[in-house]
Amino acid sequence: MKIILVCCGSGVATSPQVANKINDFLADKELDDVVQAEPHPVETAKSRIETNPNIIVYVGIAPADDDLRETIEENNVTEIVGVPWLTGIGENEANAKVLAAVELATQKPTQ
Amino acid sequence: MYESMFSKSLVNLNVCVNNADELFDFIGKDAHEKGFANENYVRGLKKREAQYPTGLIFSDIKLALPHVDSIYINKPFIYVAKNAFPLKWFQMGDSKEMEVNNFLFLGIKEPQKQVGLLSSIIASFQDKSFVDDFKKIDTSDVMVKLMINKFAQIAV
């Protein structure tokens, strides 16, 4: 199972909202058995990305600081801003980004 | 089932403060004195907002959702406040400056149980007819009715 990591400051309020929205979208696209969104506090993001190669997307409610961004880039994780899933403004575009990242990550390597 | 989270005493549509700090002092102290949050709640609000701002610009309304880690919360609540004029605030996500006079203080005690409620709140503020009602209402009585009618029956 691939993982979309969704992080806000505390992991209690906004990140579960966004994770639910993304999981609904994934279910619509029948991708919910290959990838799922998980809400976590942002403090844990760096170590999760470093230790879990199944993480393919980082959705931040707050922008990643330089340290976290470096980890995101080093691990080839796609970063997407999470606010559109809260306000609805730009939600379709954000869903499209998720879809593109999932397709990219679940592609079988071609020889 | 969420009815206990809303109360007339947790609605103040006539707040008149000058900035975010004063709002946190005022609402935070009130929530603490009413037993919903502990004595460190105000400090928690200020710290959390400075790190992770909570302003959101929806299509038809600007809203801030100040919230803290659940350790500060005694009983779950939602405190609805409107300030007499917009306050300088920062947006969730990109920390850009904005102005806002509508506030929902989210007192989250058990995130897993309150996720349904929160997603319903977020959906409602995307809905123009709800937003029109929310903006129009100027008494605590009517506001708490709107909140309970809209949110109290949601299944978790």
Automatic annotation (TrEMBL), chain A:
UniProt superkingdom: Bacteria
InterPro entries: PTS_EIIB-like_sf, PTS_EIIB_2/3
Domain Phosphotransferase system EIIB component type 2/3: 4-58
GO molecular function: protein-N(PI)-phosphohistidine-sugar phosphotransferase activity
Keywords (A to Z) from UniProt: Transferase
A single GO BP: phosphoenolpyruvate-dependent sugar phosphotransferase system
Alphabetical list of Pfam families matching this protein: PTS_IIB
Descriptive protein name: Phosphotransferase system EIIB component type 2/3 domain-containing protein
Record keyword Transferase present: yes
Gene3D superfamilies listed in its UniProt record: 3.40.50.2300
